[in-house]
């Protein structure tokens, strides 16, 4: 079996695969990751091949503790200290100056994205392997991110091993923040709300705000089309219920009728979003009409994913 329980035997097998420079899908609190030894060019290459990921898109490196994170960074800014203390382990990725001695971790640039995941299985895997694990979401490039082991298998049928830790609790990717400049800068909205980051460090710049002092003004992976189901996804202000057919799925939230009715709470909505898109794809609809969520900061990450999923 390629899907295994994350018990002692499952973890032993996963470590064996990682040490053999291959890849393992594992659960995190955000989405499932496709992990490989971040120090092995061969293993990292296998991630890009399996996902069909463009080589210019760098990977997040997962570590078990702050000490391991510091070893990958050339400097450790005060901002990193504060954010790591408050939010790690958790759904926050920090972009830092890359340690000069490091080659080949993801795509080559002068920064590195790092996080400590808040998931027992992920942490056990990191500790048992003793390796920093480069891990993007465990789906084909541009597809819907996986929140269950089953989603991983369907998107990456050739994956060598999947540790099944049940459904991911956040269900949406980590928030990516650049801490190489004076002020923290958002690169990708995600599970950790901006409000919490602002409360921790005073302010955070949006991708297009302020001076261009950070190493990266935007996350290379924020390509326009991403997170997309097979069906065509269309964002609408209001769903016109007349003239709907079986080939159209409707994704809404509480208070509106649809094929999939998610919560009106942005965190709960995010937790179900990818699974709902997978279900609609399974139902074989050709089009998914999505009722646009409110244009408020709480919905930033969800709106970001929906607009990319809708992009042609
Ligand atoms: O929640 C998550 O972040 C999940 C789990 C598995 O940890 N991972 C994830 O990885 O979403 P991925 O590869 O799907 O997205 C990583 C994002 C991409 O947009 C990538 O471009 C960006 O992080 N990134 C990676 N390294 C970067 C760097 N050095 N500078 C700026 N952005 C970077
Ligand atoms: Mg991804």
From TrEMBL:
Subcellular locations according to the entry: Cytoplasm
GO CC, alphabetical: cytoplasm
A biological process term (GO) from this entry: tRNA processing
Annotated residues for binding of ATP: 53, 57, 111, 137, 145, 188, 227
PROSITE patterns hit by this protein: YRDC
EC id: 2.7.7.87
InterPro entries: DHBP_synth_RibB-like_a/b_dom, Sua5-like_dom, Sua5/YwlC_C, Sua5_C, T(6)A37_SUA5, TC-AMP_synthase_SUA5
Keyword Disulfide bond tagged: no
Binding-site list for L-threonine: 30, 62, 115, 135, 174
GO molecular-function term, one example from the UniProt record: ATP binding
Source organism superkingdom: Bacteria
Segments forming domain YrdC-like: 8-192
SUPFAM superfamilies: YrdC/RibB
Catalytic activity from the UniProt record: L-threonine + hydrogencarbonate + ATP = L-threonylcarbamoyladenylate + diphosphate + H2O
NCBIfam families: L-threonylcarbamoyladenylate synthase (TIGR00057)
Family, similarity comment: Belongs to the SUA5 family.
Name under which the protein is recorded: Threonylcarbamoyl-AMP synthase
Organism: Paractinoplanes brasiliensis
């Amino acid at each position: 079996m390629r899907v295994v329980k994350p018990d002692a035997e499952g973890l032993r097998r996963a470590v064996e695969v990682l040490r053999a420079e291959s890849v393992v899908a594992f659960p995190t609190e955000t989405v499932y990751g496709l992990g490989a030894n971040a120090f092995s060019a061969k293993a990292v290459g296998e991630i890009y091949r399996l996902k069909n990921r463009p080589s210019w898109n760098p990977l997040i490196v997962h570590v078990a503790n702050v000490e391991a994170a510091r070893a990958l960074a050339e400097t450790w800014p005060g901002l990193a200290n504060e954010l790591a203390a408050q939010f790690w382990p958790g759904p926050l990725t920090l972009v830092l100056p890359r340690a000069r001695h490091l080659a080949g971790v993801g795509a080559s640039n002068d920064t590195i994205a790092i996080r400590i995941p808040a998931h027992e299985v992920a942490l056990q895997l990191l500790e048992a392997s003793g390796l920093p694990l480069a891990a993007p979401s465990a789906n084909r490039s541009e597809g819907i991110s996986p929140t269950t082991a089953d989603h991983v298998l369907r998107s990456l049928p050739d994956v060598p091993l999947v540790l099944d830790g049940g459904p991911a609790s956040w269900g949406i990717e980590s928030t990516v923040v650049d801490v190489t400049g004076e002020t923290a800068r958002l690169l990708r909205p995600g599970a950790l709300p901006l409000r919490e980051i602002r409360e921790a460090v005073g302010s955070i710049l949006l991708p297009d705000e302020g001076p261009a002092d950070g190493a990266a003004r935007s996350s290379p992976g924020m390509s326009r089309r991403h997170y997309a189901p097979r069906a065509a996804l269309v964002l609408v202000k209001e769903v016109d219920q007349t003239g709907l057919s079986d080939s159209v799925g409707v994704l809404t939230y509480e208070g509106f009728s649809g094929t999939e009715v998610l919560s009106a709470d942005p965190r709960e909505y995010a937790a179900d979003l990818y699974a709902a898109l997978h279900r609609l794809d399974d139902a074989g609809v050709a089009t998914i009409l999505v009722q646009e969520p409110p244009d408020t900061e709480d919905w930033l990450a969800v709106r970001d994913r929906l607009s990319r999923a809708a992009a042609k």
